[in-house]
């Protein structure tokens, strides 16, 4: 992973000193509340229903053992001994005290971490595929480009006061595991016919109140031009985006208002001035960045022998077989697999992780995966480089730690925002909904039989739980001061992206598990051989499920 | 009149900002005028070039300024709210695209803790809100010892300068 040099260290140290001074002046009454607001937001600190929250950046989801241990220590010293993984690969503390935040940032800086631009109307963390660098379907490793863009965006002086927040996702594989179509800018790394690396550029996607699938504004941008092109997009948005109404301020609204063609023309015109300038990437810089993401020293293994052993182990242990099937993933190197550590055991808020677990992950990365882990936007963690022969002992270790819930990609691997238990914007609680559904579908064999199924829950229309792109989406709404839940179907965040459609009137909390059960039961009854839930939904149609759920018993 | 920080020091602010209709005569003394007034009164302004500056609103396009920018002694960019970031882009355009070398001043509502970014995009003068002690604010001009990306104050991104 990327390692800081003296200049990187100095810049982050400058930032910590700056925020320490700002916090002191704020506490002394020298900075007004509304002036301190963007300063603290851009240092990750936002105030929620119960306490301040501090969102710590995990750049494009990569985290080292030393960093995990530091995170564990921070949650113990300054918080309640646990943290929460967000849907943008970051990690969040729920209970830090404002006065402690400068010290927390200083502790983070010692392990080359920070909370820069994790909130506020600025360029946020770049997110990418959690299997970057190891996925068999990868065309180009996105991590060096993510790092180059991360540096460009960090303390960008022109774009710290945008109309709204700005999120960029990067994908380097054929399967989109980064939801690039639902970001302010989505970047697909591709090669052109001459074999040069470049980006397909999408703009104006997003969830929230007005969900939109992003539009392609450039089929192929040679990679060396990425910074000037991003700068052109951001400049057009910064100058022309709506600043009067925060609900109309995202770039998707500007793109829609101008029209994609006019927006593209404006960006291209701006870019003509910036193209080939000093921000054009050099061979040396590309080589430097790539040098941080080289393959680790993989062992020379005999894949055939390993496969045979694994098959034997799986045959002898159903639980292991389930886990192997659901929670491990193909790797580009024969004899290796990637492993997802599930943070979705029933009864724990999805994405929560304790200090002890963070320490355990650190140890596991060192013994099984070259000292690095990844965070995923589905709120799990990944050990990317595990020797297949080590999977059985690893699984045995994961089980007592609570990481082996073998439900990845299933109905039980829900994405869920913090909701009304933590979030001041919520219309309704979301975590208890996740839990009642998990309890209702406790029969694992039944859940496996359902196959891949994304169920996403948001506590309000801000959509932090990405309910619009769940195959099943649940949205908390307020009906005359009471918590209700709207059910949506048919969303998908992958390359065949789609937005979910609302099924009908919202339900009370107690009704939700029954409704989900009816939908699932109908899928099971109607599906044809091998058909996934999403495929069946697309074939049977929205009205079919509407009938199933709202039909009156007669 | 709010205190003025210019080129790293607190100095007296001599420039007035009267509201002028296009046909009004130019007041005496150093004065900032709107883009509309500027474009309507090019002849008078040229005669008094060193004491007439331009006050640009965040939705105005520098390309609409009549005449060259070389002789303008002062361009002020108005920040209607400190969170309105359009002025940051306008400043870079003026410096980097229109090659404006005169005084570039942030007026309206910029706050002390924006100073380091304002410097980076090309401002060299600032009128801060009244509740900031301008002398103390000087410390915020250089919050960062280096920066990653190219901007008006440093045309080379860090990757072209790393040792
Ligand atoms: S979706 Fe709403 S309730 Fe959930 S975290 Fe976001 S703002 Fe809060």
Short description:
The complex is a heterodimer of chains A (554) and B (163). Chain A contains 18 helices and 21 strands.
Describe this structure in words.
The complex is a heterodimer of chains A (554) and B (163). Chain A is α+β, with helices and mostly antiparallel strands and 554 residues long. In chain A, the strands form four sheets. In chain A, strands 16, 17, 18, 19, 20 and 21 form a six-stranded mixed sheet that branches. Chain A has four domains: 104 residues, Sulfite Reductase Hemoprotein, domain 2 (Alpha-Beta Complex); 157 residues, Sulfite Reductase Hemoprotein, domain 1; 99 residues, Sulfite Reductase Hemoprotein, domain 2 (Alpha-Beta Complex); 136 residues, Sulfite Reductase Hemoprotein, domain 1 (2-Layer Sandwich). Chain A has 18 helices and 21 strands. The model of chain A has no long low-confidence stretch (mean pLDDT 95). Helix content of chain B is 21%, strand content 18%. A seven-stranded mixed sheet of chain B has the order 2-1-7-6-5-4-3. In chain B, strand 5, helix 3 and strand 6 form a beta-alpha-beta unit. The longest helix of chain B has 12 residues. The mean pLDDT of chain B is 94. Bound molecules: iron/sulfur cluster. The site of iron/sulfur cluster has 13 residues of chain A, from loops.
